[in-house]
Amino acid sequence: MESELKSKIEFALDTIRPYLEADGGNVRIVELTDDMVLKIEMLGSCGSCPMSSMTLKAGVEDAIKRAIPEITKVEAINLTVA
């Protein structure tokens, strides 16, 4: 992943990190695929919270796609669908 793009992603994540951290969670970048799918890992309480899928879509994915429109999708590698 090129460093400029990674910096943009981290900047976008930094806008929502305070909200995640307030609930004992966080997020880290795992991979950006060639077809512009960002894979992340939900950390701390976000990894096991029943609302994590909502946080992913309404929080993380929204922030990322607003900042970097070329990213087509954001997936958490450690969330299971209930």
From TrEMBL:
GO molecular function ontology, one term from the record: iron-sulfur cluster binding
Pfam families: NifU
Xref: InterPro entries: FSCA_dom_sf, NIF_FeS_clus_asmbl_NifU_C
GO biological process, alphabetically ordered: iron-sulfur cluster assembly
Organism: Algoriphagus iocasae
Family listed: Belongs to the NifU family.
NIF system FeS cluster assembly NifU C-terminal domain residues: 9-75
Source superkingdom: Bacteria
Protein name as it appears in the record: Fe-S cluster biogenesis protein NfuA
